[in-house]
Amino acid sequence: MSEFLQQLVNGVTWGSVYALIALGYTMVYGILRLINFAHGDVYMLGAFFGYFAARFFNAASDPNPFKALLVLVSSMVACGLVGIVIERAAYKPVRRSSRLSALITAIGVSLLLENGGILLFGADPKFFPQIIPARNIALGNGVTISNQQIIILAVSLVLMFTLRFIVTQTRVGKAMQAVSFNPTAAALMGISVDRIVTFTFMIGSMLAAAAGVLVALQNPKIEPLMGIMPGLKAFVAAVLGGIGNIPGAVLGGLVMGIAEVLVVGYVSPTYRDAIAFVLLIVILLVRPAGILGRQTAEKV
Amino acid sequence: MKQLLIVLLTLGVLLGLDLLLPRFLNPYLMRVLMLCGISVILAVSLNIVNGFTGQFSIGHAGFMAVGAYGSAMFSMHVGVNWVRALEAMGAPTALAQGFALLVALLIGGALAAIAGYLVGLPSLRLRGDYLAIVTLGFGEIIRVIITNVDAVGAARGLPGIPAWANFFWVGLAVVAMVVVAARLAHSTHGRALFAIRDDEVAAEALGVDTTRYKVLAFVIGSFFAGVAGGLFAHYNAYLHPNSFTFLKSIEVIAMVVLGGLGSITGSILAAILLTVLPEALRSAQELRMVLYSLMLIVLMITRPGGLLGSRELDLSRWFRRRKPAPGSA
Fold first, then answer.
1. Which of B144, B204, B245 to mutate to test the interface with A (most CBs of A within 10 A)?
2. Would you tell me which CATH number, out of the four given (1.10.150, 1.10.3210, 1.10.760, 1.10.3470), belongs to the domain B2-318?
3. What's the CA gap between B263 and B265, in Å, rounded?
4. Which residue of A has its CA nearest to B119?
């Protein structure tokens, strides 16, 4: 039982990271109906920007929470800017084209970030400095949680609630909802669709950057191709929860994280990459629009 | 009679090229040529699913893997014995190997077609991006299973596959693929596929059995993906699960979209371009893949409908009257 609880703690931590990445996928999809394949690579960039920020601020030599926060924020800001550049330079020109050509452009951007990363950062893994030394805290019953896991959970929760506040309470969030519901009508109501799309990319990229830094805290080995698999699985998580649906992305991320950790713990680590897709296929066969997605009737 | 002549002529030309080309091209160029052929089969077969029928599939590498491993296992355990037996009966080596390869390719294709049928079934329920992600999932599941099954070499890879595939067989498969795709495009079945792509509801209202045709497209597409996989296996003589990641599927999608959805000649051109391009950029070394991805983005921005759109490249058009390609909007 205690082993199961331990797995659950690890699963929820890992799942909250998936949820952060999945939020970016689901928001962009909700607004543009585009699978932003480059999103996983923005997560990779987040980890690398965090790495350089940590070295720049000397955050590893005297670790303190303030510097760690500074590393997180600077990585998020840098990735936010990268998100804006990607959207303006690559996606905006193809927004009027077919969705497939937009998808290929996204794939091109993804390959560009990966190979650009190899060119700039080198293909060999780098080690993320220990900006917060690990410490284990016993929760009783043989279950332990590390302070890093607590930080991952806390930061993810704060970011998710901030996002929720932005989307539901602010003007720009309401504009996002309007654009997602019907871009043409939103434009007619005086909403600048271009600006909202750029804003969405910025927010999504910032969340991915946070996920990158948080993962690097726990698994310090970072390399330019680290974003491919988590990106893919986070997208699956977004589809699992119902793509375009923000609570769905969080739920999907958690389900995926827990399922993965349980498979590693009780079945075999080599099947870890398959469970995400098995889960996806099973759920889509039962609920074709995802767990929280709404089935829309087809109009003729 | 005329058809028989054309078939014999094609076989003769392929055999002639098979004998002549190695004398003029160095082994490296031969290799690029063979890989181009395999890419063309993959791109045109995916075009039947994505371009003709409009069903967005991104798991093509999975079907290729099924065909590759299936045909390789057959050749290693049964095919080699057949070749030995045929040679003992006095058949020439090339003929014996060709026969065994043909059977292996058909088995690989059939296994991939069965996999395609199984993946085609959920397409009854799912549409658009949901279907895409499920096909992606199937592709990844196939790869993870291969990585875990010891009998096919698991993560070590599968060495020792007889290297029977030569220019003749790759060329023959390319011709077969293109002929099947072109004939399909001009047939009643092909028109049904185009109708599903253009408007599924309208197609159904006009009496097209959409379910059957969607599954048919999947089965044909994955059969040829399996054949391409079999050729790949018997050309490289070695298989590794990492050759069939979702990046491979993405590469094939890029060929189809770049060539223009629904355009067979477009797929052929784009398949050759995207296979030759990374090789041509080899001198740029580290910059190679960066340039490749930049070109992909720029091409998509400047030619969003693909190189040829949904048109066909038709040399005779410049000499004769204009004739629109089937399925062009």
1. B144
2. 1.10.3470
3. 6
4. A281
